[in-house]
Amino acid sequence: MRRKRVLPPAMLMLCAAALAGTAPAVASPQTAPAPTAPLRILLTNDDGYDAPGIRKAFERLTAAGHDVTIVAPLTNQSGAGTKMTSAHAIAVKHPEPKVWAVDGTPGDSVAFGLSEVFAGRAPDLVVSGTNFGPNVAGLATHSGTVGGAVAALESGVPAIALSTGGVSAPDPVATVNAMGPTVDFAIKLIDRLRARAKSGPLLPEGVGLNVNHPVVGADGKGAATAVAATFQDPQALLVPHFTDSGDGTWKVGVAVDLRPAARGGDVEAVSAGRIAVSAMNADWNAGPADRAATAALIAGLRP
Questions:
Q1: Distance between CA atoms of 30 and 99, rounded to whole angstroms?
Q2: Does domain 9-298 have CATH number 3.40.1210.10?
Q3: Domain ranges of the chain
Q4: Which residues 6+ apart lie within 8 Å of 197 measured at CB?
Q5: Chain-wide mean pLDDT for the chain?
Q6: Which region, left, alpha or beta, applies to residue 67 given φ > 0 means left and ψ of -120 to 50 means alpha?
Q7: pLDDT at residue 5 above 60?
Q8: Interatomic CA distance for residues 134 and 237, integer angstroms
Q9: Number of C-alpha atoms within 13 angstroms, CB side, residue 269?
Q10: What is the pTM (predicted TM-score) of this model?
Q11: What is d(CA 296, CA 303) in angstroms, rounded to the nearest whole number?
């Protein structure tokens, strides 16, 4: 039986409260209260610094009045998870103003950005994405997009991971089209967080949000039906298989293993055309029930 990673109830309540009344990005004219000042945002991803998702995010977040700087991988780092480079040197390019390209993982990019690009004053928020394809269920665990957000949370900076896609194989054109609504929703979400935070932090320390926006309609331009506060569905979604080549190497393949969605989870929401917003933390702690079960399991053991 697979264990669900459970966040403390307070975090889930925070997520639900932040979403209360938040409309889908293209479905409602309702707007959040006007923010008081633009945010300084470090924008990263795992698809690479010049990928369409991050460029769309840069364009629209900047148009919304925020001070945005891209610090992202030089090359595609999808699936890198929370990996950090252990090399003694790392190559960094600065191809244009407000853009830094780090020859490493999303975590390396965020670490460099916080240490050097934003030296002396941390950004108000790290946004990772928008990613091409979903980061729900087990995909989130291995996601470089989520990994970039986790690196920010570890350093005490609020973070949001953004992804665009459903659980089926993505259509490139439709997915790119849906990236616009994804970022538009992120802007509404950020404004909601700022309005609720007033002069305080956007999110409680150590808490981030994993946002998955569906692709709606054949062209990806359809409106999401709702916004849902969700949790990470415990299923893996992808199952690897290996075939012996007979020469000491093995061919690797991946099969989709979509099981019934957990009620209230991110897979259920995205599959129904809803925007899934899941609270997450960076320390991998289980919830109180799991800690109690562990304590009972080791009761009486001695070294």
A1: 33
A2: yes
A3: 9-298
A4: 203
A5: 88
A6: beta
A7: no
A8: 11
A9: 26
A10: 0.87
A11: 16
